[in-house]
Amino acid sequence: MRSILISLGLSALSLSPALGQSDPSAYQVKQEKRISDEERVVRGDKLKAYSIHPISAQVKQVEMPDTLTRGTHSFTSAERRSMAVAYLGNTYSPWQSKIFFDRAVRLPDFVYFSGFQGLLFNPQEVRWYDTKSPFTFIRYQKMLFADDTLEELLDLTLSTNLGKHLNLGGTFNRANAFGFYESNKNKSTRYRIFGSYTSDRYDLYAYVANDRHRMTENGGVTDLDYLRNPDKYTNGRVRIGSRDIPVLISSDRLINSLSSGHAYAMHRYKLGSYRPKNEPRQAEKQADGKTKEGQPDSLVFVPVGSLTHTIYYNKRSRSFYARSQDDLWQKVFGPAVIIREREDAASGQLISYIQPQDSMQMTSLSNTLSLSLIEGFRPWVKFGLSAYLRNENHSVSMFDDRVGHVRRIDRFFSTFAGGTMTRTSGEGLNFSALGEVGILGRDLGALHLEGDIRTRFRIAGKAFSLGADARLLNHRPSYFASRHHGTYEWWGERELQFVRRLELGARVSLDSWGSWAEARTATLNNYIYWDASRQVQQLDDLAQVIMLRMGHTGKAGSLNWAFSAAYQTSTHEKAIPLPTLAAEGDMWLDFLLFGVLRIHLGAQAYWHTAYYAPTYAPTIQQFISQQEMQIGGGAPLLNAYANFRLKNARFYVRAYNLGEAFMDNDRLSLHRYPYNPMHFQAGIVFDLNN
Partners of 645 in the beta sheet? Predict the structure, then answer.
C-alpha cells in the first residue's frame, strides 16, 4: 500500500510541470453533473448542490432535493421511498422496502437504525451548497380535519455564501405524529450545521448533526377482524374509528428512543499549477507594420492530484424502556432474560418484577487518508485514480449482568486499504471501480469489490443508455447483530460467520421513449435474519434473489403517466420473504391556469401479490419472519392529489387511501401493522433563492 501511495504522489508531481508542453485551452477538469433539465430551468446558475463520495471524497454536483413540481405531495410519505414498503402505520416509523434490491446492501453496525434508511443524516446523502444569493427552503405540512391524529412536519434549510469561497448553512427538521392508532406516536428532531470553503488549492467540507427519534410501541393490532370486517363494530356509527381498534400495548407505556450525534469533515490539498485559460490571441499588425502578441485572458488553476483527509465521529445510542411494571410484558414478549428486584415498602421483602430498561451505545471514530490523481487534467487522462487507508475505532456499552448495570464492554478497531478508479466526464463511456480489503483488526480479511460501467448512444435519432454493475462483499456481521443484551433477548455467545454477497445488475433506458428495464441477481451466503422467536439466525446454505423491473413515463397533451412493475423471487422465502409481483402507477393532468399557476391533478396506486410479510419486534427494532398469514393481493392503495406551483411557492392537498371509501381494504402494511386509514393532508413549500 505504501508503494502505491508513493508512486501516485511521484506521478502527480512529475506530471505537473509537463502542463506547459501542450495546448493550455485543453486543460479542464470536468465536473460530473446529475441535474435534470427542469432543474436547470428552475434554478439556472444561482444555486448549486454537491455531494461527497464517502470513500474517494470526490465532489459531485447533484440535483437539489424536492425542488420540482411533480411529487410535492408525496416527498415525505413512506410510499415514495420504494415501490412497495412495510412500515408501522405512522409515516416516521421504522420501515423496510418490500423490493429486496431497494434495501441497504448490509446491516449497519448499530442495527437498531436499520429501519431508518434514508431518514438520517449521513456523509453519503447530505448536501453542501454554493449560492449567489441567500437560499431558504421551507416545508410545512399537516393533517387536515384531525387534531387527535396530528401529523405535522417542519423542514427548514438556510444557506448563504460569505464571499466567493465560503458557504455556511443549517438544516432543521421536526416531525410530530400522533398516529391514527392507539399508542402509535412518533417524534423526530434532526438538525445539521454545515459549511464549506473552496479555493484553487484547498477545500474543506464539514458539518455537525444530531438525529433523535422517539417511538411509542403498540405491538400491533390484536384482532385483524376490526380491519377486515369493520361493519361488525360500528355500534351505529358510519365507520369505526382507527383508535377504537385494539392493540397489544396501550396507554403509551412502551418507548423506543434512538439518537445519533455526529460530526464530519473532509479537507484536501490539491497539487497543480496555474495556466492560461485561453490561447494567446493571434498577433495584431500595427500601423508601423510591426506585430504585437496578444496576452492570455486570464489564468486558471489546473489540479493534477490531491491529498485528502476525512474524519467522521458518530455516537449512537438506543433506549428501550417501559413506563410501568406490568404483567403485560410477560404476555406480549414471553419469559424475560433480565428479572429485576426491588424492596417492598410495606414488608421490606425483595419483590421480583419485569420492566424493560435496555440501553446500548456505540461510539465510532473513522479517519481516511487518500491520495488521488484527478480525471481530465490532461486531454489524455481519461480517468481518475485514488488510493486510501481508513482506520475505524469503536467503543460499545451495554447492560452487563455481572455488574447489574450498563457499562463499556468492548472496544475494537479495523483498518482498511483500498483504491478507486473513475471516469465521469466521458462523452460515450463512463465507469467506476472500487476495491477494499481489511488488513488489520476485527475486519481482517473483509473484502469489498464493486464497479459499474455506463454508456449513452443514439440509434435512428433515438437516445439509449446502457449500464451494468457488479458487487462482491465479504464482511463481518454487524456488531449488534452478533451481540445484543436486552430484557427479552440476549445473544452474543454464538460467533456469526462472515457474510458474503455477489450481486450483478444491468439496466437499459430508452430515453426518447421514457422506458427502462433492469435485471438484478444476488447470491447470498451466511445471510442474517431474525426468526419468529426474535432470535438472530444465519443461513447455512446459499440463497438466491432475482429481480426484473421495468417502467415507463409518457404524456399525451396534458395527460401524463408513470408506471413501473417488478418481479422478484427468493430461494429461501422464510429468511427472505418477498412479494412475487409489485406495481405502482401515477397518472396526472399538467396544465397552467392564468399562465402563472401550474397545477398537477392526479392519482396514484400501489399493489403487490400476497406473501408472508414480516412483522415487527419492538424489543430489538427489527423486522422478523412469520408464517401465520399472508399480506397483499387484495385491493390496491389509492391516493389522489393536487399540486400547485406559483413562482417559488408550492402547495398541495392529498387524499390518502381514498379507495377505502368505495372498496374493501384491510390496509395491512405488514403482519399486525396496518397503514393509515383514509384522511386528508395539506402542505406548503417555499423555495426562496433570491
Answer: 598, 650
CA distance 81 to 118: 8
User: In sequence order, what are the residues at sequence separation of 6 or more whose Cβ sits closer than 8 angstroms to the Cβ of residue 343?
Assistant: 349, 350, 351
What residues form DSSP beta bridges with 441?
414
pLDDT digits (tens, 9 = 90+) for 86-134: 999 888 899 999 999 999 999 999 999 999 998 999 998 899 999 888 8
Distance CA 128, CA 194 (A): 7
DSSP string, 61-122: EEPPTT-SSTTGGGTTSGGGGSSSEEE-SSTTS-EEESSGGGS-SS--SSGGGGGGTTSS--
Count the Cβ atoms, other than its own, within 10 Å of residue 360: 22
Q: What is the distance between the alpha carbons of residues 381 and 359, in angstroms, rounded to a whole number? A: 53
**CB of 579 closer than 8 Å to CB of 98:** yes
The owner of cell 477545500 is: 203
Q: What does the angle CA 260 – CA 261 – CA 264 come to, to the nearest 5 degrees?
A: 120
User: Which amino acid, 427?
Assistant: E
The dihedral region occupied by 48, where left means phi > 0, alpha psi between -120 and 50, and beta the remainder, is beta
pTM value is: 0.88
Q: Which residues pair with 128 in a beta bridge?
A: 50
Which band of pLDDT confidence, cut at 50, 70 and 90, is reported for residue 243? confident
Q: In a 3-state reduction of DSSP, which class is residue 237?
A: coil
Q: Which residues contact 395 (CB under 8 A, 6 or more apart)?
A: 362, 363, 364, 408, 410, 411
The one-character DSSP state at 403 is T
Instruction: Give the Cα-Cα-Cα angle 160, 166, 171 (nearest 5 degrees).
Output: 45
* First and final C-alpha spacing in the chain: 49
* Rounded average pLDDT over 554-582: 96
Q: 181: which DSSP letter?
A: S
